[in-house]
Amino acid sequence: MVIKTKQVGQTHLRVSTLSLGGASIGNLGHEITDADAKSLMDHAWSKGIRYFDTAPHYGRGRSEKRIGACLANRPRDDYALSSKVGRVLSPGEHLDAADGFIKPLPNAVRYDYSADGILESFESSCERLCTSRIDILFVHDIGVMTHGEVANARHFDDLMGSGMQALHDLKQSGRINAIGLGVNETQVCLDVMAKDTLDVILLAGRLTLMDREAEDGLLQACAAQGTSLVLGGIFNSGILATGPQPGAWFDYAPAPDHILEKAAQLQAQAHAVGLTLAAAAMQFAIRHPAACSVLIGTGKITSLQRNLDAANLALSDDALAFVST
Length: 325
Fold this sequence. Notes:
single chain; two-stranded antiparallel sheet; eight-stranded parallel β-barrel; alpha/beta
């Protein structure tokens, strides 16, 4: 298959429309080996994926270390990298698991959205990624969903007080090409965009076949600013991949009854036009005009290939109408 590229916002950067997310490479939920990570990265590369996303949060640096090692011998101009700031790592104790990641690197974590924290996080990520530049730098998990009202007010003040200027300085110097947010909620995107401009937003779970929260204001704001979306969490933690089976997950928790019912309705509609629910979810994301890329987050070659196949399906007119509504 040929994977196209799209422009990121108003920048000169282009990324492959399908990208590989690095959470599972950081041992999210289960452990994979360094060799597994390399095989996954090599398979993604062989299929035309040239955009790779990671974060210090993913295995407390393990994902960045693995991705950096896998890409070290690739020409730097042949791929795009994104990572994230907001969490700063420092040497810490060995843990069997932390924050959902198995056997993370022995690092402690603190939140810091100020200029100093952002610059420290950025330089550490560059070291782990074996590069001097990161194409897209996302501000990670700013917002009430992660921090609560009180703590988020402090972090938001830090970001707007000095953090955003540090990002603009990095962009001006050529160390990054695009500034963005990497979040699971839309309100904080609107809050930031009311005060500053963003090139791109990595939005997880809020613009999917199931959840259209981004359609209430954020898409209009993105159009006005020329901001692109990278779509993550397109299966809403699993339910759009597995279907409404018992134990299916939605947004990091077991799906409640009304979500199971909605998934069953979507699955019936997808089947009626010749699609699986997972393929419909992928096609909805890959065809969305606001999206410059769709993240595939997996640690397995088989699931990566299954998603690539779903993205490459030829659609009937009825199927196209369903995934485009």
